[in-house]
Amino acid sequence: MTSAIPACDTEGVHALLERGRALATPVLRAAVGRLAAPMDTTAAYHFGWIDAEGRPTDGDSGKAVRPALALLSAEAAGAAPQTGVPGAVAVELVHNFSLLHDDLMDGDEQRRHRDTVWKVHGPAQAILVGDALFALANEVLLELGSAEAARATRRLTTATRKLIDGQAQDISFEHRERVTVEECLEMEGNKTGALLACASSIGAVLGGADDRTADALENYGYHLGLAFQAVDDLLGIWGDPEATGKQTWSDLRQRKKSLPVVAALAAGGPASERLARILAADAKSESETAGFDEEEFATRAALIEEAGGREWTSQEARRQHTTAIEALDRVDIPPAVRAQLTALADFVVVRKR
C-alpha cells in the first residue's frame, strides 16, 4: 500500500513560493518589457499585472512552483538562490507560453478567475505573445554567456519540445474512444513532467552542478510533475471553481482523456462500460459539449468515481510523490534544501487549486 503523505508545512512552502516570486518577478517584468506593443501589455494582462483596461492590478499570477524549484535547485548545488533566477524566469516564460496557447486550443475562457488572453485580446495576440515568451526564455539564459547557460538552455529547449509533444498527444486523445493508462502517463510526463523536471535542475546547472546531480534533481521534478498533473486531473473534474478559477467539470467539457477517465475506462465493470458507451458516442459526434446540461456532466463524473477512476488517480499522485522523494536520495544535497524540496512535493499533492 502507498504510504500516506505527511502533513504539509504550508507556512514554509508559502515562504518558498513568495521568495521565488520576489526574486524572479522583477527580472520577468524586465524581460516582458522588451516586447513590442501591444504584446507587452497583452503579456502583462496574462501575468496579472494589469487589468483588461491596462490599469495596474494585484491579479493572481499563478502558484510560482517552478520559480521556487529553480531557486532551490541552485541551493542544492551549493550556490546562492539568486544563481537560479535566470533559470526561474526562463522556465516561467516557457510555462506561460504554453498556457497562452493551451487556453486557445482548449477554448478555455477563464484562467485565474478572469478572462483568458485570447478572449480579451483575440486569438492572434495569444499566439504571438506565446511565441514571444518562448523566444524571451532562451534570450534570458543565453545572454548570460557562460558554459553553464548553454547547458541550461539545452535542457530548457528539450523540455519545451517534450511539452509541445505532450500537448499534441493530449489533443489527439480527445476524439479517441480509448486511451491506455500508459499513453496517458506518457502524455502527462511530456506535458507537465518535462518542464517541472527542468525547473528542478536548471538552477543547479547554472550553479555549476555536474550532470549526475542535475539528472537526479530532474528525475525528482519529472515525478513531481506527474504527481502535480494527477492532482490537476482530479481538480479538473471535481475541483471547486472558486478555488481553481475554472468552470465546473472543466476537463469533461473539453472531452479530455485525463487520468481519472482513462483509469475508469480500464477498470471494467458496469460503471466503466456505461462510461465507455457514452464516450464512444462522443467520439463519433462532431458536435461539442456546449449543449450538455450540468446533469450530464455530473452523471459522467459519478460514473468515473464509481468505476474507481478518482481513487486510482489519487493513489497515483501519491505513488509519483514517493518516487520523486526517493530520487533525492541519489545525490548529496544540504539537508535543509532536501527538506524544502520534500515540503514542496507534499504541497503539490494536497493543494486545492
H/E element order: HHHHEEHHHHHHHHHHHH
Shape: globular
For CATH, the homologous superfamily is named as Farnesyl Diphosphate Synthase
CATH architecture: Orthogonal Bundle
| Mean pLDDT level | 92
Quote the distance from N terminus to C terminus.
26 Å
Report the helical percentage.
over 70%
Number of domains: 1
Tally of helical segments: 16
Helix-strand category: mainly alpha
Give the neighbour order of strands across the main sheet: 1-2
Segments where pLDDT lies below 50 for 5+ residues? 1-5
CATH topology heading: Farnesyl Diphosphate Synthase
Major sheet summary line: 2 strands, antiparallel
Number of strands: 2
Assign the CATH class. Answer: Mainly Alpha
Strand content: under 5%
What Rg is obtained from the alpha carbons, in whole angstroms? Answer: 20 Å
Name its key features.
353 residues, Farnesyl Diphosphate Synthase, 2 strands, mainly alpha, two-stranded antiparallel sheet
Could you characterize what this model shows?
Helix 4 packs antiparallel against helix 8. This protein is an all-alpha fold. Strands 1-2 form a two-stranded antiparallel ribbon. 71% of the residues lie in helices and 1% in strands. A hairpin with a 2-residue loop joins strand 1 and strand 2. The protein is globular and about 60 Å long. The protein has a single domain, classed as Farnesyl Diphosphate Synthase (Orthogonal Bundle). The protein contains 16 helices and two strands. Mean pLDDT is 92; it is low at 1-5. This is Polyprenyl synthetase family protein. Belongs to the FPP/GGPP synthase family.
